[in-house]
Structure formats: C-alpha cells, structure tokens
Amino acid sequence: MSPYINHPIVEYTYLYLGSQSEMTPYINHPIVEYTYWYLGCQSEMTPYINHPIGVAYILTEEAGITDLSVIQTALLHDTVEDTSTTFDEIEAEFGKEVRDLVVELSDDKTLMKEDRKRLQIEHAPHASPKAKLVKLADKLYNLRDLQRTVPRGWSQQRMQGYFIWAAQVVAGLRGTNKIMEEALDKIFKERNVDV
Ligand code: ZN
C-alpha cells in the first residue's frame, strides 16, 4: 500500500476507483474544482475526472510505472491549463519536481490552438523523461477515448487529422516506454496513420 494513501488526491482516486459511483467531494481541492468546471461546460463528453485518473491508471496498471512524482503529475497535468489552479499551489502541495513536470505538460493558453498543437510536436523531443511518460499516457488515453466515441460535431476528416497530429507528437517521445509506444502504434496502424 502506498505510504501516500492519506494524501487527499490519492485517497480521492482510490475512493473513485473503488466506488465507481458518486464522487465524494473534496472541497477546495483542485481536482474537484477541475471536475466541476469540466462537467459544467462539457457535459456531452466523458466526465472529465475520468481523464486524469485514466492517465494515471495507464501508467500504473499498463506501463508498470511506480514513480510517485509521475503518478501525481498524471493526476494534475491539466489542472493549471484548465482551472484557476496555479503552479505555486501545485508546488506548495506536491513539491518542486511535480510543479516543474506540470509546467512542462501545460500548453500556453495565450497562444492560438494551431500554434499550441505545433509547439507540442516541436517540444516533445526535448521533454524530460518523466514528462514524456505522462505525455505518452495522455495521448494513449485520448486516442482510445476518440476510438470509443466521436466527439459531437467532429467529421471523419477532423478525427483523422487528430490521429495524424498525435502520431507526430508521439514521434518525439519514442524510446521512453515500450508498452505504451506499442499500444499507440497499434492504434495508429488501425487508423492507417504512418509512424
Ligand atoms: Zn490530459
């Protein structure tokens, strides 16, 4: 059992995974804020708390990753990008290493979407090994999610464009984790995307 079981985020994750029913609110916790924010504005999609937990789950259960800072980063990787949570708050709760990893994984929201997507391709090869692990799991989760359900309003062309872009990001992350890279390659092959 993890010595960090008492940390609110870990406890919350276990509660969620254990019950798979109603979420127990952790008032003021960024993940909860994140969940409510997402549920409020994207209600037609998969409930967003599934995403950070799903990314952490891929890392622990599929990729064999046990490094705590990687798992914490997986749970927190989108919080600054998508909520009012700050990097300083992440550092105060989880320390500098997790802060720096979340910084690496956060897009600059002041940029246009196309620029952000291009920068993900350009930055991927220069990411730290731990950030690369979370990025691989993030892409794997998102592509599996897309395979399950086409987001409302997405054409087949837009779908295919997303898979092609994801393959370009993954190209810069290779040599990091064989299991996740093989799982991603299987998806790209199914979609006829060159890797
Ligand atoms: Zn994500």
The percent range for helix content is: 55-70%
Bound molecules: zinc ion
Round the mean pLDDT to the nearest integer and report it: 81
Please report the total strand number as a whole number.
0
| Number of helical regions | 11
Radius of gyration: 16 Å
> Could you give the distance between the termini?
39 Å
Shape estimate: globular
Percent of sequence in beta strands: under 5%
Which regions have little confidence, pLDDT < 50, spanning 5+ residues? 1-7, 14-28
Q: Order of SSEs, N→C? A: HHHHHHHHHHH
Write the layout of secondary structure elements.
Blueprint: H1 8-19, H2 30-41, H3 50-62, H4 68-76, H5 79-82, H6 87-94, H7 96-105, H8 113-123, H9 129-148, H10 156-171, H11 178-190
What can you tell me about this protein's structure?
- The structure is a single chain.
- The protein is an all-alpha fold and 195 residues long.
- It has helices at 8-19, 30-41, 50-62, 68-76, 79-82, 87-94, 96-105, 113-123, 129-148, 156-171, 178-190.
- Helix 3 packs across helix 9, helix 7 packs across helix 9 (129-148) and helix 9 (129-148) runs antiparallel to helix 10 (156-171).
- It is globular, with a radius of gyration of 16 Å.
- The structure holds zinc ion (ZN).
- The site of zinc ion has 4 residues, from loops.
